[in-house]
Amino acid sequence: MSVTWNKIPSPCYLLEEEKLISNLQLIKRVQEEAQVSVICALKGFAMHSVFPLVKKYLSGATASSLHEARLVYEKMGVKAHTYCVAYIPNDFEEIQKYSDYLTFNSLSEYERWKNKVHTNISCGLRVNPGYSEVTTELYNPCAPHSRLGIAGHLLGEHLPEGIEGLHFHALCENDSYTLEKVLASFTKLYDSFLRQVKWVNFGGGHLMTRKGYDVEHLIKILKDFRQKYPNIQEVILEPGSAVGWEAGYLVSTVLDIVQNNDIPIAILDVSFTCHMPDCLEMPYQPRILNTNEKGAFEYYMGGVSCLAGDYMGTWKFDKALKVGDKIIFDDMIHYTMVKTNTFNGINLPSIGIWRKNGEFELVNSYRYENYKNRLS
Ligand SMILES: Cc1ncc(COP(=O)(O)O)c(C=O)c1O
Fold first, then answer.
1. Across 322-344, average pLDDT
2. 78-114 pLDDT, tens digit each
3. Whose CA is nearest to atom 16 of ligand 1?
4. Are 120 and 267 within one domain?
5. Per-residue burial over 168-184, b = 16 or more CB atoms within 10 Å of its CB, e = otherwise
6. Do 222 and 366 belong together in one domain?
7. Which of 181, 223, 239, 319 lies at a 20 to 30 A Cα distance from 89?
8. Mean of the pLDDT values across residues 244-250?
């Protein structure tokens, strides 16, 4: 049932349950047909009020810190696959309570911790697969001078004792044809090691829920990989974006319209820097519902923070905007929600779910204490 916008408070991240379920169904089909495990990357999707739903379809979750691992354990009821760029000494014992896989980013990290790893935990190493097509340096794990993953030539002849898995992460919103090329490089560089391990993790960035993604091709290359390495018991994929892809919105409201130059700026009750930081970092211009490239009324959207660059544009509308109008940013569920901050003391948007039966459920809202308690 489509969303009744006037039932939604502003500002609010709104997840459409039906859209999430359709993403999860597709991911489940990939798991079943390719016989792989797909786990949810919390860095991209950590809306824990729907973890019970996610758990019905996916094989668990991956964490990159103690807090993410604990959230997986408490809210999904499973142990996390944990990979940290470096393990924080004070966290290492506790992180093992919530994890059943630990991946290490360097040989020195593994050497440092290997004698403290509990016997029920399976250890892996993150390696650099030597190929990636991510053009934005900020998001390219295989960029020159990358600190993420061991470069192939450092591994020597044998994997260190106790290592049972290999992990790479080299994709960002890529398709299966890019994965195929990454796998060609990965298997060439690490073939002998791949014949020694029990599991392999292909990281995230598999945007299988995007329209036009060739899911059948993904299934085929996963099956081919499994056939090539029959010793590998588990092939794992850990997407974040694909879980929440186009599954919801950031609902905002026009507070004022200013015009100091040729094009007017609608000032909103949200902020790009606080509530949609990826738009400025990447950068990319998000879609807004009910805009029209040929519309006669053009606006910048201005954030409510005082950062000079907290605006983007432009977008065109068929009708002039007025104070009180709703501006609905599309595809704002993955990453955006996780990366919010309270710069300027600006409140965080509420979080809500548009249930598939057409009801709105407010799952969280924020107040002064949330801002105050982060600081001291
Ligand atoms: C190690 C690792 N795994 C998984 C992911 C999730 O990637 P995505 O959300 O693009 O699928 C990331 C994203 O940065 C990552 O660094």
1. 97
2. 999 999 999 999 999 999 999 999 999 999 999 999 9
3. 169
4. no
5. bbbbbbbbbebbeebbe
6. no
7. 239
8. 98
Q: Tell me, yes or no, whether 223 and 165 share the same domain.
A: yes
Residues 52 and 177 in one domain: yes
pLDDT digits (tens, 9 = 90+) for 112-171: 999 999 999 999 999 999 999 988 888 899 888 899 999 988 998 899 999 999 999 999
| pLDDT score at 18 | 98
Asked, for residue 29, whether it belongs to a domain, the answer is: no
- Kindly state if the Cβ of 239 falls inside 6 Å of ligand 1: yes
In a domain, 25, yes or no: no
Neighbours of 91 (CB within 10 A): 15
CATH of the domain at 368: 2.40.37.10
On whether the CB atoms of residues 42 and 54 are closer than 8 A, the answer is: no
**Segment 4-43, tens digit of pLDDT:** 999 999 999 999 999 999 999 999 999 999 999 999 999 9
Nearest ligand 1 atom to the CA of 207 is 11
Q: Which of 223, 244, 265 is the last residue of a domain?
A: 244
Whether 237 and 308 map to the same domain: the answer is no
Q: Is 167 in the pocket of ligand 1 (CB under 6 A)?
A: no
Q: How many residues does the chain have?
A: 376
Rounded-to-integer distance, Cα 238 and Cα 42, Å: 9
pTM of the model: 0.96
Cβ density class 64-86: b for 16+ within 10 Å, e for less: bbbebbbbbbebbebbbbbbbee
Q: Parallel, antiparallel, or unpaired for β 163-167 and 61-63?
A: unpaired
Enter the DSSP assignment of 73: I
Note whether residue 211 is domain-resident. yes
Same domain, 230 and 83: yes
Is the same domain home to 214 and 312? no
Q: Does the Cβ of 43 fall within 6 Å of ligand 1?
A: yes
Cα 240 to ligand 1 centroid, rounded to whole Å: 6
Dihedral sign, Cα of residue 152, residue 153, residue 159, residue 161? negative
231: containing domain: 35-244
Q: List the residue whose alpha carbon is closest to atom 10 of ligand 1.
A: 205
The angle, 0 to 180 degrees and rounded to 10, between the axes of the packed helices 215-228 and 176-194 is: 10
288 shares a domain with 233: no
Ligand 1 within 6 A of 333 CB? no
